[in-house]
Specification:
0% helix
C-alpha cells in the first residue's frame, strides 16, 4: 500500500554486483566493481535459490568477504544481495534537536569552528593552550588567582623623546642631537620601566636657581602621599658643570628631577652645549 504522510528521506539501499555460485562458500562483495565492506551481516539481505538467508547462521561477513554456511554448487543461484542502511542518510535535523550527547568526543575540529567565535560564558582549558596569533583580553589576565592582585590588566611598550626644562619657567632652551636623543619604556600593570639618552648640542638660558627636570615621562606618576614613585640611576653622564648622580620622579606628574647629591637638586646652568646623559629607572603610575 502507498506510504501515508511525508515520505521519509532516510536509509541507503544498494543492490550489490551479481555473484555467480561455484564450488566454494566464500564470495567477494562488490558495488560498482569496487570491493564493498558492510558494517555487519545484519546489514545484508541475501537471496539464495529464491530463499532469504538468515545473517549470522546462513552466512557471515568478514571485511568484503561473504561466506555461506556450506559450499555452493554451480547449480545454485545467488539471486541478489541488497545492502541496507549504508550510510544512514538522514534529512535535515529540526532546529534545537542536536544535543551534546549526539556528538562524539573530539568530533568538532578546529577547522569546523568559525574564524572569530564569541563565547558567551567562561572558557576553561584543562590542558596546554597554544596560540600563534594575537590574544586580546580587555579585562586583563588573571595569573595564579582571580583577585585584583593576580590580574594583569595593562601592558604597553613604546618610545618617547626626552627633553630638559626648568621645573618652573621656560628660560632654558636646549638643542638636541636627534640621532642620540631617545627614550624607551615598558609598562606592566602600574609599573613603568624606562631608559633614556639625552645628547645636547646647544643650550641657552640655564639658570642657577631653577631645578633641572625631564618633564615628559610617558605616564603620570602616583602621588607622594601613598607611594614611593621611583626614580633614575645614571649610567653615563659627561660634560656638565655639576655632575648629576641620580633622579627622582615627582608625585602626580610626568617629571623626573635630577640631583647632584642628597637634597641638592641639579640646576639649569648645569647643562652645557655638549652634555650627554644616559639613565634608566622605574616608577609607579597613577593608573
Amino acid at each position: 500500500m502507498p506510504f501515508i504522510g511525508t515520505q521519509p528521506e532516510v536509509g541507503g539501499y544498494s543492490v550489490l554486483d551479481a555473484l555467480t555460485a561455484s564450488a566454494t562458500a566464500s564470495n567477494t562483495l562488490q558495488l560498482n566493481s569496487t570491493n564493498f565492506v558492510p558494517n555487519s551481516a545484519n546489514q545484508l539481505l541475501v537471496s539464495l535459490n529464491g530463499v532469504i538467508q538468515k545473517p549470522g547462521s546462513s552466512f557471515t561477513i568478514s571485511g568484503s568477504t561473504l561466506t555461506f554456511s556450506s559450499a555452493l554448487a554451480s547449480s545454485d543461484s545467488i539471486d541478489f544481495i541488497i545492502s541496507m542502511g549504508e550510510p544512514l542518510l538522514i534529512g535535515t535535523p529540526s532546529d534545537g534537536t542536536i544535543t551534546t550527547n549526539k556528538l562524539v568526543n573530539d568530533s568538532v575540529t578546529g577547522a569546523k569552528i568559525e574564524n572569530n567565535p564569541t563565547i558567551a560564558g567562561n572558557l576553561t582549558v584543562s590542558g596546554t593552550s597554544t596560540n600563534t596569533g594575537l590574544v586580546t583580553a580587555s579585562a586583563g589576565v588573571a595569573i595564579g588567582g582571580t583577585g585584583s592582585a593576580n590580574t594583569l590588566d595593562d601592558f604597553e611598550e613604546g618610545s618617547f623623546v626626552p627633553t630638559l626644562k626648568h621645573e618652573v619657567g621656560d628660560a632654558l632652551t636646549v638643542g638636541y642631537a636627534s640621532g642620540y636623543t631617545y627614550g624607551r619604556y615598558t609598562k606592566v600593570g602600574s609599573l613603568v620601566t624606562f631608559q633614556m639618552t639625552i645628547d645636547v648640542d646647544s643650550v641657552s638660558g640655564g639658570a642657577s636657581n631653577q631645578q633641572l627636570i625631564v618633564p615628559n615621562l610617558p605616564f603620570t606618576s602616583k602621588s607622594y602621599q601613598t607611594n614611593s614613585n621611583g626614580g633614575a640611576n645614571m649610567t653615563y653622564v659627561v660634560n656638565l658643570n655639576t655632575n648629576i648622580t641620580y633622579g627622582i620622579v615627582l608625585g602626580s606628574s610626568t617629571s623626573l628631577r635630577f640631583y647632584s647629591a642628597p637634597s641638592t637638586p641639579s640646576y639649569g646652568n648645569t647643562v652645557t652645549s655638549s652634555t650627554h646623559i644616559q639613565c634608566y629607572g622605574h616608577y609607579e603610575t597613577a593608573s
